[in-house]
Queue: 2 jobs
Job 1
Amino acid sequence: MNNFIFENSTKAIFGKGCVKEYLACLLSHYGETVMLAYGGGSIKRNGIYSEIMAVLEKAGKTVVEFSGIMANPTYVKVLDGAKLAKESNVSLILGVGGGSVMDCCKAISLAAKYDGDIWDDFWVQPGVIDFEPLPLGVIVTAAGTGSEMNGGAVITNEELKIKTGRDYPKCNPKFALLDPIYTYSVPKKQMVSGAFDTLSHIMETYFAKPDESNVSDDISEALMKNVILNIRAAIRNPEDYTARSNLMWDATMAENRIIKLGKQTDFECHQMEHQLGAYTNCNHGEGLAVLHPIYYRHIYKYGLTKFKQFAIHIWNIDPTGKSDDEIALEGIEALADFIKEIGMPSKFREIGIDTDTDLKAIAYSCNIVPTAYKKMTHEEIFEIFKECF
Amino acid sequence: MNNFIFENSTKAIFGKGCVKEYLACLLSHYGETVMLAYGGGSIKRNGIYSEIMAVLEKAGKTVVEFSGIMANPTYVKVLDGAKLAKESNVSLILGVGGGSVMDCCKAISLAAKYDGDIWDDFWVQPGVIDFEPLPLGVIVTAAGTGSEMNGGAVITNEELKIKTGRDYPKCNPKFALLDPIYTYSVPKKQMVSGAFDTLSHIMETYFAKPDESNVSDDISEALMKNVILNIRAAIRNPEDYTARSNLMWDATMAENRIIKLGKQTDFECHQMEHQLGAYTNCNHGEGLAVLHPIYYRHIYKYGLTKFKQFAIHIWNIDPTGKSDDEIALEGIEALADFIKEIGMPSKFREIGIDTDTDLKAIAYSCNIVPTAYKKMTHEEIFEIFKECF
């Protein structure tokens, strides 16, 4: 195992009824004014909004609403939120939603306490945060990104056409409330997309050195198998509490830093998808679904041991009488088949990206990850993009 | 998954050279006087003591030594340590050792800041700690208990013949330094005993409800397989860094609360071993090794689904043409065989417990765990003890 440092400051409160049971107590640690941040308003239709407002009102809080946080949250939206938080003297941001809301709120929590330009100072390159961001608590309503238990925030700078993320431990939410029942009303397409994002996070962590025994990889395998089993179960029955609760905690475990310990990670696929998102606003999980098998066919020879292990341990490929290459490729095929089985796209056309898109510009705007099994070139990324049609 | 709350405040710093690289920086957050707490002095023979003292001296700290912490640390020893810490106006306890040292130091950190009797108020029954214990940092030199990343402390009250533990999050070490190379000099018997303690912690967590898909159980399976693989590797070559690092992090992961999330646990075997330890001072890991297979043969029918899963997933038992009972029992036999393979005892006589021991008194002094698959009676525990000859 490689050397590492681990800490995680978020308090995670998980299970049915947790908002009603614990939110009031959590709110009591903060001042009078709470900024309630959310997305397009689905929480008003499914009753979550009124459940939370009832707690806020009973706690005597002044509520400042900040709604309309979009998928692929923009830097402009972050600045709007920070302005509102400053003007309203907010004591706590309460983000209610999925990854987009949580990521936007983390960036707001920084910008609300910073006089400079957070994009320039903390996103263009890593910075040092020597101040306390505005406290943030989150209530998760869509599982997938695992943003609830790390300091990571992916923000899109529309003007510069850059979608990128940083993980600052100081941006970890103070608390995260995770009620699997809150995810019942997420439409199938979005549920599957979120769960595939989780699977992608685990694969991106798994497919990098070292290749010798490493308990973090073993835990990743356990998580991958659990995600696969429970995506299937949640598709069969969207109100299967066991499936929803596993998918929800899988998402958190995939991104609370545990499975990254003692190892390198890849995340090149995420870099490619981020720039696709920045240029085309495509759905994150769907972009990843298209890219993953094609990317892996390009790189598997450079990480053959791990790709073979992936095939055998995750997809139960029988290795008898097959070469390592054949086994590895069967594993990638099994992943591609699974993507189709759960109704996710395999081609760019299915996610609204057509041949008119300037794929070369997108490819050349991608970050290159040095720790991937095969360090990509921008030309190789362009080739991968072309194969996605 | 059952409802849960998770948080863990310990900062874990892992890998070769971590003490030299990070201890000075960690010490800078605390005052002048450091209590250096350790066991029988093996750290003086293997060079760890001088490495740590060099850092403490360079940092200009006044060092108060507290040595001689024994296996199965006693309440009397805790009180001695607390008296010394109070008298010397200690700012930080730095515990260097394995589980016994860490547990003793946690109890000292409480007692040093408490005017009452910590045994009565926090160990006889759970109490509320509404004060800050003396800060504790640990340097792990023997892997096994996982005490470095929780607030648990098992203390033996010799007068009352009770060995028991509590887990208070406020007692979590502030930091834990884990250098796998520090464990190279641990003798084989002690290394295997520690690793079996880890395996026991995982099994005790695994063998309880729920029995439906639960990612925490899947992670437990990953950890068990990693421990088994790497005990074998570390026996073959005690200086196998990969094996030692996996065993060290497995121990932490087994007891940092992660695998307990969303489920009940058993830990009846630990309760039995604790009382054996209180009466006979037997080695903890060895006591567990004797008890586990016999205990499991008594309870497997009450958790047949999980015992069958254990046999197939952990020990690769072929289920073809066998009844569930046969599969489950083959898994328990595989565990018993593994215990013999790694040179651990299977009988009480091998760990110095003979027929003169008042096993009935020990059995009737054991705590009963209500969440085990089969809630024991004291008479059943007595029967299990008798079968251990």
Job 2
Amino acid sequence: ETMEVTLKTEVEAGASGFSVKGGGNEGIFIKKVLKESPASKIFSLREGDQLLSATIFFDNIKYEDALKILQYSEPYRVQFSLKRKIAVQEDLEHSTARHKKERIGQVDVL
Amino acid sequence: ETMEVTLKTEVEAGASGFSVKGGGNEGIFIKKVLKESPASKIFSLREGDQLLSATIFFDNIKYEDALKILQYSEPYRVQFSLKRKIAVQEDLEHSTARHKKERIGQVDVL
């Protein structure tokens, strides 16, 4: 008797040492994981796991590689995480300098 | 005066109509967004946005496209979302049939 779990791997670099199979309606599955590889030791992938999604972090990525990833993923469902500079509204002028300073920085608007 | 926000786009298919620039230490930035394109209308991307990460969902993806995405992202930081079948432990045999049934299904182990 089995049960299904969904899980997320740690965010790590260098997911090498595995192959996939499937595609289309069937889904993408881990076909083979090389022993002692990062896929096995760091990501703990196992043969038979279904890959539901992959999040690729763009820090220190080569332009060409980012471009290819974006091009190949274009037809599919994607979600981007963005950093955006936005203008601080005029009405903040009436607040104190100290208050203004606190408003600057990173804010999550999920 | 500006502030920075981080935000996530909706999960949608077909992120077309934009170009990127940058790479390496600098980061990847949205260079141009075509008006009336999905990138503009559906994803609300704006020129100057920094792409921190992209999550690609593998439902209904072609094998070849999934393979390319995994190959190009291999050197970089990634996170996978997986579905895995696991064996239900023997000690569950002592529980009631109804209880067993409740254990079967999707469980998040984030």
